[in-house]
Fold this protein.
Amino acid sequence: MSEKVVNIMLGGPTSLIPHDDINQHRHEAWIGVDHGTIYLLDQNIVPVIAVGDYDSLVAAERQQIEKQIKDIRYAQAEKDFTDSQMAVLTAFADLKATQVNIFGATGGRIDHALVNLFMMTDPHFQDWLQQVTIIDCFNQITFYPSGNYQLPYQAGYQYLAFANLTPVKNLTLRQVKYELTDFSADNPVSWSSNEFLKDQPARFNFTAGIVAVILSHD
């Protein structure tokens, strides 16, 4: 099956949106979420789908979306799923994405950032756990179920962190600056400010849980 990348633009602070990455993905499919849709239109990117309750938009912005976008999914302001969860479900279920990149997911309101970080622990999203990446100007976040992994060396990122989002068993880190052996915990823990070894892949494995891997630079 050929790869289909779908990009999602949420409504986080535009100061944290990496414009080079946006241009790199410009000609791929996009989903706009609430005010993220306006950001895309301002960048001359017309999303194939817009979703949200649009509670952050003024009347003129709503009219702009309704004029330029054919497929608009309206959500109730009071609902079980957040707009970001709705967008991810739409990307995989409707657009048949094999990879989803999420922008505008960090910064601003902490509750929104936590929803975006923890949504991949929701059972509804388990089938797509390794197909979602959250990207901002300083970070790239990916998600892993239990298993054995090798992470290629990333010259553009100074720091490497491993954070278990659920209870974890036997987390082991190898070929990194600070190694770890058979760590288990029932609560979330972030092993932050680790680093790649020069030109070497990082290796990690664990037997139960969900771990977020965060590549960062200042």
In short: Residues 125 and 209 are 14 Å apart (CA to CA). The radius of gyration is 18 Å.
